[in-house]
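Worked Example 4.2. Consider the chain below.
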Amino acid sequence: MPEDHKNPVFQFFMSKEITSRQADYAQWYNDLVIKGELADYSAVRGCMVIRPYGFALWEKMRDTLDQMFKDTGHENAYFPLFIPKSFLTREAAHVEGFAKECAVVTHYRLKNDPEGNGIIVDPDAKLEEELIVRPTSETIIWNTYKTWIQSYRDLPLLINQWANVVRWEMRTRLFLRTTEFLWQEGHTAHATAEEALAETRQMLDVYADFVENYMALPVIKGVKTANERFAGAIDTYCIEALMQDGKALQAGTSHFLGQNFAKAFDVKFSDKENKLDYVWATSWGVSTRLVGALVMAHSDDDGLILPPKIAPVQVVIIPIYKGNEQKEQLEAKGKELTSLFKKAGIRVKFDSSDNNRPGWKFAQYELKGVPIRIAMGPRDLENKTVEVARRDRKEKISLPIEGLVTEIEALLQDIQQKMYQKALDFRQQHITPANNWEEFERLLEEKGGFISAHWDGSPETEEIIKEKTKATIRCIPLNNPQENGICIFSGKPSRERVLFARAY
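Applying the procedure from the previous section yields the following structure tokens:
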């Protein structure tokens, strides 16, 4: 092997720039997002700039999910960014839930300040009705559906949109909670409650499938409590994931809206007996916070670790040479391998640039979480081998160039599976029962994770627990075992355990 392969100066020297998880988990996360070139802070408070590498990651997520939506019969559309204020007020619970987060457009024109102090809002350009920058699109969409739906023949209506939304956040964190973020929101209309409920559950399963099989992140499927459900929903279903610091993160939600929005916007249809009834509705969404979940669930103190299925670059090839003759030989072989990888559908980058030394490249691609790094020098060519390093375990092996594509395909599959298993083992180790209040508080402080405990079912008790501990009921798991018990706080009877956790 060339000496550069083994020189510690070249390897992992960038890791010192990253705060360790143990020292400061929040700073570690920020370091990875910024230095891994996923995103940057913007000049607009609470908003972020998604950098090309971060957007490429989001595109892989988006494109995969988009195909899964289409495979389940959904179509994409686009609705306005602005919502008339009166629309939001039609569904009482909905407006109450979002009122404090809404950005409002009041004027439509600027003008030069007569006193010469730059530009001012033209006081004569006040809107007759204020416009809300969408925090979510139920109201504008259901106002539109009224014109699209008259008969059972128009149902089901299965629409999704990819969009940006604005929710005025006071405390922001890149990807996890920003004032503006990217997401998809599905909005469907059905003839019966049963159909709408089936749709709600189906989309929850789609989300779980994606997060587990593509993001390599195990989730728990469940139902939110009344306190935690979406504003205007009858039921909110969710998938909950666990991060390395023991905090939970809601990775996706699917809402059964009943007839609430149909009644608010008078959306009726004629059934097969020609009787009028209100339409049944669902909505469901995931956002760019999935990128944040990916970072926190898998990465280490040396940088990002990305699952192969959604990594923008799955394999990077780095030649190590001295002089033009070696460079030409290695470039020829590198281009040959790149072509073979691409034919196999592997996302590969051949980095033969001269602007940085191989060791810097090693560290940089490690920081950015590329699953597999292939290094090759003149001696490797002589031996007809390459050095292959896997990011997740930091293991290096020598592989023959002959049949390399097949070996790399198998290795990518193994990395994907091992990453999921590691996250699953961690989650399983951090689901802990608590049978009394003292045990509950101790587990929250000392261990974290999901705490399985009895709750009396009252919103009041739930709120007190939240105020005292900052822990919320993440979900009531689907197919939850029924068992008699006593609420950890009130001492009142309980029929089942629920999952508590502190959360992002």
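Residues 1-15 have pLDDT under 50 and may be disordered. Residues 404-429 form the longest helix (26 residues). Compare this with Example 4.1 before moving on.
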